[in-house]
Amino acid sequence: LIPKLHRKAFDVVLKTPLLKLNHDEVPDIEDIASQYGFGFRMDAIIHPTVSGSLAPVEHRIPAERAASLAMRQPAIRNQLRCAYHDATVPFDDKTGILPCSAGIYSFQVAADLTVNPCSIFRRSFGDLLLETFRDEWQRLCVFRSQPRGVSADECMKCPLVSICVNCPGIAHLHGKGSDFVDSYVCEYTK
Predict the structure, then answer these.
(1) Mean pLDDT across the stretch 128-132?
(2) Total Cβ atoms within 10 A of residue 104
(3) Strand partners, 15
(4) Contact status, residue 159 vs residue 190, Cβ threshold 8 Å
(5) Does residue 99 contact residue 92 with C-beta atoms inside 8 Å?
């Protein structure tokens, strides 16, 4: 499959979750991506399932090891360095509930045609079979304008906020309120 993708005119990015089961294989996956001129990404922040199961969280590798593997990637190092030195949180107005691009230029449509802020934050804003795109987009914009929770405010005061991936979507998957902070995410960021 990889040689076939290489021959096509696609921009290909190999992406893998970083798990206890595969963390030793990550350098090999990165080498394959490099060999074919593909991009490479990995994600160490493993979440509960959309249905609420915490089972995937058991597959996380220690945060320090995950951060070490992430920092081996020049693209990630450069992105984090720029974000940290600029001290900016992309798309963030410092007051709204979502510190990301969800609801600014994107959202997620599930297989059942419900509209959600993003792929991990499954809080339906309506059904595209029953309502217009405009109606659902407007509800998502109203949701985005909700104020942050108390813990999120504390996060916004952290000097590492510009490189942190904590968000209400993570809290939602953990079955918590928008002010929940996943300690693994905090440790990984530090």
Answers:
(1) 88
(2) 15
(3) 41
(4) no
(5) yes
